[in-house]
Amino acid sequence: MAFAFKYIKGDTVIHKLDPRTKLAMVFLHIVAVLLIWDLRILSILFILGLSWLVIAKIDWKNLKKPFVALLLLLLFVTVLTNMFYPTIATESPHILYSWGPIVIAYESIIYSFTVSMRYLAIFPIATLFILTTDPSKLTISLSKLKIPYKLAFSVNIALRYLPTLLVDYEMITNAQKARGFELEKPTGGFIAKIKRVAPIMVPMLILSIKRAEQIADAMDLRGFGAHKKRTWYHDTKLQHNDYIMIGFYLFVVLAILYLKLYIFTGLWIPPFDLVKQYLWVPLFGG
Question: 207 or 57, which is more confident?
Answer without folding.
Answer: 57
